[in-house]
Design goal:
disordered N terminus; seven-stranded parallel β-sheet; 294 residues; 11 helices
Length: 294
């Protein structure tokens, strides 16, 4: 059996989100299957569809997306490639951050927009209910409580199974939990970028799934440390970065994204990489430079 046939996201173990959604702890982020600048359709649509289908073949049963990826394109491709979805397959999507052009983001987490956005996502994903619906980012022009209360209302209406947050502080999490249960938090986090360590620790203490975006990081200093450690483990630095995240906490579910089947297979192979305690500790002791110096 070849390596690509043998690898499986199941090797990462499982985590149960919200008490009823058990997923493999290596997921897939579907932002990169859109066009350049996260805008428009992909340059190679067959490759994007093949990547999504291969992810499922490799045991990935958790996919993260958003209505703003494309916009709409990522959700449409997921449905085209995978619907009807396999049993136990979980899709998390988001709203509250609109895409108005290549590389451009605009806040809009108003109750009116969120109510319209859920209808669009349900239609594009061909679902009657979305398992995990995330507030993409707090909107400085809208009361945070009003945004979360809207998601709680949509949950009560049966359009959402679970409410989640993205790009938030610990304070946001606690304010939201006074309104509705929060099952996951998605913040930027990687071996190379640990600014949100304390939010991850808070999630760990409260059994809230933590979905690190940009899980491979872009820090040259930290990547040098990964390259050095990876040599003795017959692994790539990217695989080591994912293995480090998996060992960091039981609540972490990395969601690396790609539009390449080969890169996907490399990422999923990290699920089988068992990071020795001494190497984990050595890497954990590496302090990445502040963001301003990267």
């Amino acid at each position: 059996m070849s390596q690509t046939q043998a690898i499986s996201a199941a090797a990462a173990g499982t985590f149960t989100i919200g008490g009823d959604l058990t997923v493999h702890r290596l997921g897939y982020g579907a932002m990169r299957i859109t066009g350049k600048g996260i805008w428009g359709p992909p340059a190679d649509k067959p490759a994007a569809l093949a990547t999504l289908r291969r992810a499922v073949e490799l045991g990935v049963n958790f996919i993260d997306t958003a209505d703003s990826y494309g916009p709409n394109v990522s959700e449409e491709l997921i449905a085209e490639a995978l619907h009807p979805y396999p049993e136990g397959f979980v899709i998390a999507t988001k709203a509250g951050w609109e895409r108005v052009g290549p590389g451009q983001w605009v806040h809009n987490a108003s109750p009116k927009h969120l109510k319209e956005a859920i209808e669009g996502s349900l239609q594009r994903l061909r679902l009657d209910r979305i398992d995990i619906y995330q507030l993409h980012v707090p909107d400085p022009a809208v009361s945070f409580e009003a945004s979360v209360e809207t998601l709680a209302e949509l949950r009560q209406q049966g359009k959402i199974r679970h409410v989640a947050l993205s790009n938030v502080t610990k304070e946001h999490i606690e304010r939201a939990r006074k309104i509705v249960p929060i099952v996951s938090v998605q913040n930027r986090y990687s071996f190379a970028d640990r600014e949100w360590d304390f939010v991850l620790d808070h999630c760990d203490q409260n059994n809230i799934a933590f979905l690190p975006w940009a899980p491979l990081g872009q820090n040259r200093f930290a990547n040098d440390a990964l390259e050095k450690a990876a040599k003795g483990l017959n692994a790539t630095p990217f695989q080591l970065a994912l293995a480090w995240l998996l060992k960091r906490s039981k609540v972490v579910i990395p969601i690396p994204g790609t539009s390449s089947v080969a890169h996907l297979e490399e990422n999923v192979a990290a699920a089988s990489l068992k990071l020795p305690d001494d190497i984990y500790a050595e890497l954990a002791a590496v302090t990445p430079p502040p963001a301003a110096l990267r």
